Amino acid sequence: GAGVSQSPSNKVTEKGKDVELRCDPISGHTALYWYRQSLGQGLEFLIYFQGNSAPDKSGLPSDRFSAERTGGSVSTLTIQRTQQEDSAVYLCATSYQTGLWDTQYFGPGTRLTVL
Amino acid sequence: GQNIDQPTEMTATEGAIVQINCTYQTSGFNGLFWYQQHAGEAPTFLSYNVLDGLEEKGRFSSFLSRSKGYSYLLLKELQMKDSASYLCAVVYNYGQNFVFGPGTRLSVLP
Questions:
Q1: What does chain A look like in DSSP terms, one character per residue?
Q2: pLDDT (tens digit, 9 = 90+) per residue, B19-50?
Q3: Which of A43, A52, A71, B100 is most buried, by the most CB atoms less than 10 A from its CB?
Q4: What's the confidence (pLDDT) of residue B22?
Q5: Do B102 and A41 touch (CB under 8 A)?
Q6: Residue B86's closest CA among B42, B49, B34?
């Protein structure tokens, strides 16, 4: 079956513009996670959706970041008024069970470059 | 905070054995993952440890000591394709927190 997909694969934007990143989970996976990985750095947790519960937003770096998950499936991560420090690879992962201890399957990521 | 420590880089020879260590803060610990990430690719799952001891999966094994806040990933019969970053990640507080370590970049030389 299809894995986690993300779009676009690459996004170049100008400082101050808004961007939207999309994640399509594996069918049947109830949990969805967004991470950020800066060049040469580890993964930084951003936000976690568990089924139909309110998302855990504790990792969002600022109020410019927001995410939603429509119908428990597709998720969109929105970054408003982008800054150069937002440049990173944004990874989405999903898991079958609603628990952080379940295996996460990662998408290929969206490479965001803010000029 | 819930700091996770791993060596930044390691080098080993094809066919050899390498052990990648991970230390973490024990308070609130629920489980530990190891992921492999090749350059420019997404992480892929390797193992998950909840109880103390060694979990073996082919050439890869993972060990956990909950009392010591310590885990290692053991790679045997190293192959060139094992050159990658290896990420240790810990679940805390019954799933309230999920923290990745900085990763260990492993280079396998011929």
A1: ----EEE-SEEEE-TT--EEEEEEPPTT--EEEEEEE-TT--EEEEEEEETTSPPB-TT--STTEEEEEGGGS-EEEEE-S--GGG-EEEEEEEESSSSTTSPPEE---EEEEE-
A2: 999 999 999 898 999 999 998 888 898 998 99
A3: A43
A4: 97
A5: yes
A6: B34
Structure-token pair, residue A88: 């990173």
CB contact under 8 A, A103 and B48: yes
Residues of B in contact with A47 (CB under 8 A): none
Buried b (16+ CB within 10 A) or exposed e, B63-95: bbebeebebbbebeebeeebbbbbbbbbbbeeb
Beta-sheet pairing, B104-109 with A19-24: unpaired
Asked whether the beta carbons of residue B31 and residue A41 sit closer than 8 angstroms, the reply is: no
Q: How many CB atoms lie within 10 A of CB B50?
A: 13
Nearest to B57 by CA among B36, B37, B27, B40: B36
- Whether A72 shows a pLDDT value over 80: the answer reads no
